[in-house]
Amino acid sequence: MGASIAPEQVYWNRKVPLRYEAEIAVIGGGMAGVTAAVSAARTGAKVILIERFAVVGGNATTGGVGAFCGETAGQGQVFDEMIADLEKYHAVAPYVPYPKADHRLFNHTILAVVLQEMLLRHKVKLLLHTQFVDVSVNDDGVIKECIVCGKTGPEALRAKIYIDCTGEAQVAHMAGFSTLKGRSEDQVQLPMSMMFFIRHAEDEHAREEVPEGRFEAIRDKADLPMTSIWPNGPRGNAIKVKIPMFDATDTESMTAAEIRARRRMMEVLDYYQKVEKRKWLLDYCSPQIGIREGRRVVGDYVLALEDLRAGRKFDDAIARGVYYLDAHKPDDDKRTYMLGHHDLKVPPYQIPLRCLIAKDARNMMIAGRCMSAEQLALSSARVMTTCAMMGQAAGIAASLSIEMDCDPREIDPLLVRRTVERNGAKLDV
After folding, report:
1. What phi and psi values does residue 182 have, to the nearest 5 degrees?
2. Annotated domain spans of the chain
C-alpha cells in the first residue's frame, strides 16, 4: 500500500463571546468529573462543569453500567454523599466489602438524578448538552481559554485551572500535550461494551421477536460474544455485550462501534428468544456504548503495571486501587483476557498525585480513565470507585492551587494527601 494522502485542510476563524468565567473548569461530567467539581466547590471555589450529554455520570448513567466495581467504602466524602443519597432512594445494593463482593449494583437512572442534585447543591455551574471543542494554549503550557458549543453556538470559557475528565483526553489532545493510546505495539484499546435492558413478559403469549433475516443469526451458544446478565429490578435484566476492535478517539470508528453494538444486541436478543426460549422483551438500549479506554495523558508519573503488582506506596498518594486487572483481550469478542487468570489479581496499591498532573501543562490536571497510566494498570484503575477518588483529589488540588495562586505541581503534595485523607479517603495499603 502507498503512503496515505493527507486530507485537504480548511482554515477558519471566528470571534466567539467570552460567555463563562470560573476559577476551575471541569471538562467531562463522568464519575471523575462530578467528584472533581463537587470537591472543588466544597472549598468555595467557583467551578463550572461541561458535559456533552443530557445527564452527568458518564458510563454509570449514559452508558447504563449500573455497578460500582471494587471497594465502595473509604472513597472520600463526595462518594460517601453519593452512596448516602442512593440509599435514601433504596437505589443501591447493601454494602459488602471487597473482595467478598467485587461489585455493588445501583439504579443508574436514579444515580443521574442524585449526581445532578449534588452538583446543584454545591453550587457548581452545570452546562449540559455542551461539547468541548478546542483550547487556546500558550508556549508555556498554560491553557488560556477553551471553546465549548451548545445550543447557543460556540462560546468561550476562561478558567485558572482546567481538569480534563473527558475520558478520551480531549482537552490534552487539542492542547497538543503528550498522550498515549492502547497497547504500545499497535495502539489497540481495551474493548468496549454495550448495555441493553430487557423485561420478562408477564403474559405467557406475549411475543416480540427479532424478524428473521434482518441480522446474523446465532444458534449455538459458543458463537455468542461475551455476554453478562445482571439483575435490573423486578422482571428485568441488564445485558452487557463485548464489542472489540474500535477506536474511542476516532469519529468514524465510534460511529461503526455504535452500529455494530446495536446489531450485536439484536443478534444476542434473537438467540435468547429463539434458542433458549426466554420471554425477553427489549426495554431499551443505552444511548452510548461503554468505553473502557481512550487516550491517556502523559503525566509527571506514568502508573505502571509493576506498581500495581508490588502494591506500591507513594508519598504523594491521593487514591487507592484494589480492583483486579480487568483487561479483556482487545482483539476478540469472547471472555478472554490479556493475561492468564492467575495473573489478574493485584494487592491494594496507591495512585500518586503526579499521575493527575499533565507533564506538558502548567494549569491542567486529569482524572478518570484518561489518567497517566500504562494500559494494563489502567484496566484496574479505570473503575468508577477509583475514578471518584482521583476526581476528588484533582478537585482538592485545583482548589489549593487557586487558594495559593500557583500551578498544581507547585503545591506541597503532602498537603494534598492530608486534605484528601481528611475528606474521608482511605489510602492505606
Report:
1. 65, -160
2. 18-185+293-422, 192-285
What is residue 208's predicted lDDT score, i.e. its pLDDT?
74
- The one-letter amino acid code at 39 reads S
For residues 63, 168, 339, 60, the Cα torsion angle rounded to the nearest 10 degrees is: -20
Evaluate the omega torsion of the peptide bond into residue 99 and state whether it is cis, within 30 degrees of 0. Answer: yes
Question: Taking a C-beta distance cutoff of 8 angstroms, is the pair 179, 189 a contact?
Answer: no
| Structure confidence by residue, pLDDT tens digits, 19-72 | 999 999 999 999 999 999 999 999 999 999 999 999 999 999 999 999 999 999
Query: 18-185+293-422 is classed in which CATH architecture?
Result: 3-Layer(bba) Sandwich (3.50)
β-pairing, 364-366 with 153-164? parallel
- Mapping DSSP to helix (H, G, I), strand (E, B) and coil, where does residue 286 land? coil
Q: What is the DSSP letter of 185?
A: T
- DSSP codes joined into one string, 344-355: -----EEEEGGG
Q: Phi first, then psi: what are they for 73, rounded to 5°?
A: -100, 150
pTM: 0.96
Say which residue the cell 461541561 belongs to.
50
